[in-house]
Specification:
By secondary structure, this protein is of the alpha/beta class. The protein has one domain: Rossmann fold (3-Layer(aba) Sandwich), CATH 3.40.50.2300. Helices cover 42% and strands 21% of the residues. It contains 5 helices and 5 strands. The protein has a 5-stranded parallel beta sheet with strand order 2-1-3-4-5, with helices on both faces. The longest helix is centred in the C-terminal third of the chain and has 14 residues.
Length: 126
């Protein structure tokens, strides 16, 4: 692990579709970030509670369980206000009103380069 990767915040990737989650983990890991992954909001919250190095949440909106990605984003924003939030969806058209303040949104399919550039910009600001 290089010194640069150690300085960057880790990214928690929350996606219920295993292949999409695997692609996101590979994309973000290849961009030089440590990653954690979860398939549900409940699992994501458990990871947030146990890993203090997470600085970015990258979440899908449409997920099974009692909490969708927007609710997860609001929960993380409230409990960990220092964590940057990036939301992606291929099903839901979202308005800024439904997202926590400062959150970013990408429509699926998204350009990998655009997402990784955004994550790098966030990391540079943290």
């Amino acid at each position: 692990m290089t010194q640069d990767i150690k300085k960057r915040p880790a990214v928690l990737i929350v996606e219920d579709e295993p292949l999409l989650r695997m692609d996101a983990v590979d994309m973000i890991g290849d961009a030089g970030f440590r990653t954690y992954e979860a398939g549900t909001a409940a699992a994501a919250i458990t990871i947030m509670e146990t890993h203090s190095d997470i600085g970015i949440l990258f979440t899908d909106i449409d997920m099974p369980g009692s909490m969708d990605g927007l609710q997860l984003a609001a929960h993380v924003h409230q409990g960990w206000p220092q964590v940057a939030i990036v939301i992606a969806s291929g099903v839901v058209e979202i308005e800024k009103v439904g997202m926590p303040e400062g959150a970013m949104f990408f429509s699926k399919p998204y350009a990998s380069s655009q997402v990784t550039r955004t994550l790098q910009d966030i990391a540079d600001r943290q």
